[in-house]
Amino acid sequence: MGLKEFDFVDTWLNRPASDWSLKRISILQSKIEKYTYKLYNMNKFGRQNLSKLVPTHLILQFANESFGFNGWSSEIVSFSITDIKVANPSNDNNSTINSKDKVSHTNKIMGQESTINDCANEDQVMITVFAESKIIVTLKDGTKTDSIGFGTGTMSSKGLALAKAKKESVSNGLKWAFLNFKNLLDEHEIKIKSKFYKDGLYGTVSR
Predict the structure, then answer these.
(1) Which domains does the chain have, with CATH numbers?
(2) pLDDT per position in the chain (207 positions), as tens?
(3) pTM of the predicted model, to two decimals?
(4) What's any GO biological process attached to this entry (predicted)?
């Protein structure tokens, strides 16, 4: 099915753009539910949202099987560093570096001004970067969903810690964006029953 067969409106964020996306999202959900059912039968995770336990690589595998490798795309809308901590693991009494051992300076990381405290002896320092990313997943018919992902990176190098935190936050955001398609389906069904849509089920486009 080519893109020309779809009608587009300005935005389809959290709303299905065609019958194709409804069917494909349902396939994705069935794959996720089948996996979480196995987790449920293991009787070791208690009462919680089991979908969050599905590994990201499996979510991506399910997405490719449901939408096709060329049926979806993702975009990093924003990325930010939420916190930076510097610790001295060799100090058993206090993992935070004492102020007298710190040399404060300002670095620009990803276009942001972040004050980082470095120890005079960098071999004893572990730097933890906390980051978050906003990810949008767009299906080929224009249907979109988004989510915020969080990540942390603890390394002896600021650059490596930042890279690890960013990679983890993007991966986490991508996973939850796909999981949010379930909410899209649920809300769509409620809106249909309440006759919420005034422009037709998938919008009206003049030809």
Answers:
(1) 13-193 (3.30.390.80)
(2) 444 444 444 467 777 878 899 999 999 999 998 888 877 666 665 555 666 778 999 999 999 999 999 999 999 999 999 999 998 766 654 344 333 333 333 344 444 434 444 443 445 789 999 999 999 999 999 999 999 999 999 999 999 999 999 999 999 999 999 999 988 888 877 777 777 767 666 654 433
(3) 0.72
(4) double-strand break repair via homologous recombination
